[in-house]
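Weekend entry, working from home. Most of the wet-lab plans are on hold until the incubator is repaired, so I used the time to fold the two sequences that have been sitting in the queue since the last round of cloning. Logging both here for the record. First:
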Amino acid sequence: MHREFLMGNEAMAVGALAAGVNVVAGYPGTPSTEVLEAVARRRPEGVYVEWSVNEKAALEVAAGAAYAGARALVTMKQVGLNVASDPLMSLSYIGVKGGMVVLVADDPGPISSQTEQDTRTFAAYAKLPVLDPSSPSEAYEMMADAFALSEELGCPVIVRPTTRVDHGYEDVEVADPGEWERHEPEGFVRDPSRWVIFPALSVRAHAAIEARDAELSRRLSGYARNVISEPPVASPRLGVATHGISATYVAENLGERDGVRVLRVATPYPFPEDLAVRFLEGLDEVLCVEELDPVIERALIATCGRRGLGVRIRGKLTGDAQPSGENTVESVGRALDAFLGRPSAASPGADEAVPTLPVRPPVLCAGCPHRASFYAVKRAMRGRKVIFCGDIGCYTLGNAAPLDMVDTCLCMGAGINIAQGVTRVEPGTKAFAFVGDSTFFASGITGAVNAFYNQADMTLVVLDNSTTAMTGHQPHPGTGRTMMGQVVEKVSIERVLRAIGLTVVETVDPLDLEASVETVRRVADEPGVKAIVFRSPCVVLARPEAVSAVDVERCVGCRRCVRELGCPALVPDAATGKVRIDPAQCTGCTLCEQVCPTHAIKGGERP
């Protein structure tokens, strides 16, 4: 054993490797991404790892490996679980042979997600055990627990870290690589009565799952990571029930003199009811401190009802804890102050003493080719009735002024189908659906098939920057390399679209503004479903050496470049009334050079 200072995601990756994981699949999504990347960096010979095209595919790959007796890990974020939910719900009934861990990173806040979903609630819906770590070191240890529990129960086990556990750091005691378990899969054994899901199998499985979870609830009351902490007083009357990272916030806000009993729930489903009863004994009131859904609060209310306990349970449902959003040390402290009748820890005027942080709005990077793509479409469609349907990726930032080019954004791949729906109601509207190259492979292809099959009238715009930029530049089928480092044949977006049946598929460099505008005008007027692939590499991966500069003698201060592009490298100069370019940010993409009416900007060099 040795100690390493690890991010939570890397700790879980090392925990999986130490537990003998054989196959790892996932789809990138903050805050989960680094788990699979750490596995790829540290994996020994014989461990297979892949970025799958989406979460559904990743979970099915892991399921196949677990059917064959391997230990399998699948990684995703909470919204990715929606994509994987179809196979997961059936897998709950079918079960697995090898250990299978589904690592789902929740994002309270949300900091980098569309929604604040709580995977603890999803686990109860899917009737699958879920482990809820409170720190990177506990997350490391829980990986081995999860694989062992999965193999014992014959079902997937969910591990549910949250952003502050994923991205927090801790000095973690980990096994040396020579101490890692070596798991040898038995291989797939044909048994249609077990591996082929039919209604009769599901009926039997459902009954068995209910019995299993009832017994598991009793067993988990003795799980070492479900903990009751007693205060140094004879008969405490108040209690706090908590979980995950919130448990550390509770610990920071409670002292021995507060006289509070604390329950930390590491297994929110099945809920450890017997342990909860021991926690509730002798208490008058309990405050539940948890993030997102009131999972513990509802479980304690139900426990009190079933066991006839007269304990008042307080939390989100009673207005004693914030109903949504991410907890902090300060927000938990305020809730505990009110619950315990303590004076607020914040001194008068403390809030005024904290300086206001500068506003930092999200913006496309300087030189991002997506800015050029949006601008070309906007210019080509000026004066026409148009809807711009966006999608999930860096290019969602195209909704900000001055581009204002994202009218809708729902979930990955949805923009293509939304564009179809709008044109059915408003046939005269020119509909554009923007989708990134990675998202096209993840969930856009089915929308394109649906559009062609149902004879939609729309323009599909694929913003191809040759990477999965939003989550850290992971490879995808169009990049020609895999997570294992293999160089493979690229999957051609144009060939896929033509194979579907599209006859108008044009590819253009978005940083060639004149050609891009002309292409958009021509393609948009074609009937049916047509496609434009704007192809230019992500500026983070292909940054040129030359940058643009403003000739102050030729600049007339019209600020058209600033008003129309919104590039962060373009800076209005209050002293001169003109514009200057920040050389630290400029990438020399030349888009502003092409927009400037007086040709006052020169010197850039497109990649």
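Second, folded right after the first finished:
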Amino acid sequence: MYRVTDPGQLHGIIRHHPMAMLVSNGPTTPFTTLLPIVHLPDAEEPEGFTGFSLLGHLNRANPHWLALAGGTPASLVFSGPSGYVTPALYDTPVAAPTWNSVTAELTGDLVPLPEGEETLEVVRRTAELFEQRFGQGWDARGSVDYFRSIVSGVGAFRFDVTSAQAMFKLSQEKSPAVRDRVAKSMLDDGDGTRRALGAHMCRMGRTTETARQPALWGGAAEPECLLTGLARTVAERPDELALVDEDTRLTYAELWAWVAELATTLTRHGIEPGSRVAVTGGRGARTVAALLATIAVGATYVPLDASYPANRLTFMLRDSGASLLLHDGPRPAIADEVESLAVEDPSGAGAGDFRPVSCEPDLPVYVIYTSGSTGTPKGVTIQHSCLDNMATWQRADSVRPDLRTAQFAPLNFDVCFQEVLGTLCGGGTLVIVPEILRRDPFSFLTWLAENRIERLFLPYVALHMLAVAASAQDGDLGLSLLEVNTAGEQLLCTPPIQALFKVLPQARLGNHYGQSESAMVSSYVLPADPADWPLLPPIGRPLPGCELLVHPADPEDPTTGELLVAGAPVSLGYLGRPELNAERFVTVGRTPQGHTKAFRTGDLVRVEDDVVYFLSRLDHDVKIRGIRVNLLEIEACLLRQPGVATAVCVALEPVPGSRQLRAAVTLHPDVTDPGDLRAALTELLPEASVPASVSVLPGLPRTPSGKIDRDSVAESLTTQGDR
């Protein structure tokens, strides 16, 4: 597979194909429409893609038109020529995979053109193009007359290209010698396009080895099944404290007996390996016991944070295919969807001869839902090989495996599993943070001291606010912290954070990196002296069993590009989303460690001295209080609201370290009051995804090319009030 970005080659491919697939984000699934594309009349061949535009037309009833009229980004996909390479050039049997193709993809913005003669001109040029291509029968004059009669139903548009590339597939698993021979034959060909592609192959051949250099390996891993580790801890520390919340204190023996009771109940209700069990409620001993019982019988745990909107929880419950719902507290409204059971308190009986199931590497442990650009969340399936590796590493990497650890993360945040399993598999004590303290750093600071917390996992913003609260205290803080780990977003070593660790010389700060799709990828422990800390610490080196690859944006700089994860951390993928799995979980050439599958993180990174530095996101995801939020999902939900014509959401940082979301909409001409849009979003999105304000504007600022100017929107929203 070769990536072509040369404008001349791409223009040639596009001009040979009058039909393209228009793709845009729909409310649930992408819209796709095959339609004719024509070039601007009398336009000179541009040297690049700046200012390059194409024309087309759509029926105004087409869902694309409604979705794209507001400037939503889209792409045009041209399935290009398939005859650039002759299969006879290969020394392989006919049945070998030697098919060839070129697919060009252009991303950009669709700008509606005025009704009337401009629309008719686009229609006329399209009809003439098809008559030239496919012979008589299209009748350009008749087509224009017909469209003139229905012009109110037809919308012409200009597609302004912002980026483009083509993927040129030669074959599968061919040796360099064969590829070189194919390239030489193409260089000698009389066809200009083949010669250009041959030259491209030669250039790519020279940079292939260089581009593969940034492959970092965390070393071999032999993870222990987390259930085996937990059972051993119970046997070795039966009377030591395992779990504490506001109402409960359980030793390891008591917790294990409770898990055994719940596991028996699950089995009695038909739950077996491969089943899915949803669990909802607040953070506490009951939800921890339900988690452990679910995975102990080999079923897949599906956390449903009770703070989420009911509509979102209902979708997650249905989409996950859970056959049973365990709930802590009163029976929730979503319990009508499936059979439900309340999590019962422990009876006090012992665990007997209870044994958990044997771990299989591909046995799913949990399905966790993350933000999706289409307006609906997507479930990620994490298997034992991924989670066992994390738990084994956490036990070995911490300053001590049996640390007294605070459980701070929400149920639907993957760090929750690191807190729970990393602590209990290491023999530590898990102390549940009361929900009311998660947003009160001053009271939280006091709670940490009173509960002698030794290990803490926090997103950067929460850590910064805790440090600010500490800076306002006089005297000894009384903290027992030995280890603080931050994850979920870029760590910024602010003066308050440095000051906190100066008064905690016994504590270390670790920067962890991973995604829902590849749990715990890399780690970096900052130097002992906070004075030596960089402002933006790296995300570090890969964990054992993890291989990190860089897909360079520029072959001349192979150390900078999109980060790909291979090996132990890679999950089983998105639940029921084959198209998205194909896009994000990709096949790669055999890596130095023998991997052929990798996860595309969407993160731009730089590798320096075998250490990885995070630079930025490559998509529309942002982190709000450590939780990944997709701006396009918020915009899609706004576009569902009656009366909303266009919508845009931006992330602002009015105070350094305090990022917030703000949104703006325009309304259809006949609508004056869209209602409370923020309230509508709270019914669809988790709290972190609800913008602080939704402003109604008469129009959205646009760039000269016609696309929404997000920077101008962000600037204007800093002075707008809530709606």
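Plan for Monday: verify the second prediction. The chain is about 30% helix and 30% strand.
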